[in-house]
Amino acid sequence: GSSRFMSPPQYAVWVPPQIEHSFYSNQPINYRAVCLAPALCHELPKQACTLAISDILKAILKDFAARDVKIPEQETDQRLAQVLVDQLQQAPIHQCYLPYASSPGLLGILEALQVEPGDNRPLSAWAEQIHVSERTLARQFVRELGMSFGEWRQRLRFLAAIEALDSHRSIQEIAFDMGYSTGSAFIAMFQRQAGCTPEQYRRSHLPGRKL
């Protein structure tokens, strides 16, 4: 539909059967795609969403990829595949998806912010750019995206921050890149979204990027 889901490290996008969808990346990446028979999907979410991936699930996918197992035929691989399905069924749904718009004016704003998440221009400046009133643009955000301009931008910054944490940049540098004037404000935002600080996230999810 009109939703776009981002898949940062530690998360996967779930698309139910019979849902038309497409995938795009602006740079080369390695990723895993798992196709499930519809009969296995009854206990999985009925709507497209983002799921948190467990270490067990990642290990199974890595093992299948290393051994080039595309369809589990051996009994041992079928047991692993069942564990994989069990892990997907238990995976927490991650609410920080990014809905997308269809109207050209609003879509242009969202794409500009995605290029530069740290852009701190207020809603009034964006409204002036597309020649509508601030109130009209605010209503358009809620109508088309189901959330305010501020909430959408905060979700974008959180997802961009997860990607930025997989680097050797300091938390302070990432905070400035995301448009925050202080590291503490950025840390508070991240903790509200992730339930942990950026440094805790980096240590637990990205052990190769400890600073």
The CATH class of the largest domain:
Mainly Alpha
Regions with little confidence, pLDDT below 50 for 5+ residues:
none
Mind telling me which CATH architecture of the largest domain this is?
A: Orthogonal Bundle
In N-to-C order, the SSE pattern is: EEEHHEEHHHHHHH
Radius of gyration: 19 Å
Number of helices: 9
Instruction: Give the domain tally.
Output: 2
Provide the residue-averaged pLDDT: 89
| Spatial strand order of the main sheet | 2-3-4
Strand content: 5-15%
CATH-assigned fold name of the largest domain:
Arc Repressor Mutant, subunit A
- By DSSP, the count of extended strands is 5
End-to-end CA span: 40 Å
Largest sheet: 3 strands, antiparallel
The assigned structural class equals: mainly alpha
Question: How would you explain this protein's 3D organization?
Answer:
This protein is mostly helical. The protein folds into 2 domains: 3-94, no CATH class; 101-209, Homeodomain-like (Arc Repressor Mutant, subunit A, Orthogonal Bundle), CATH 1.10.10.60. Helix content is 49%, strand content 7%. It is built from 9 helices and 5 strands. It has helices spanning 55-66, 75-90, 104-115, 123-129, 134-145, 149-165, 171-177, 183-194, 198-205, and strands spanning 3-4, 11-14, 49-52, 93-94, 98-99. The chain has a 3-stranded antiparallel beta sheet with strand order 2-3-4, with no helix packed on it. A two-stranded antiparallel ribbon has the order 1-5. α1 packs antiparallel against α2 and α7 (171-177) crosses α8. It is globular. The termini are far apart. The mean pLDDT is 89.
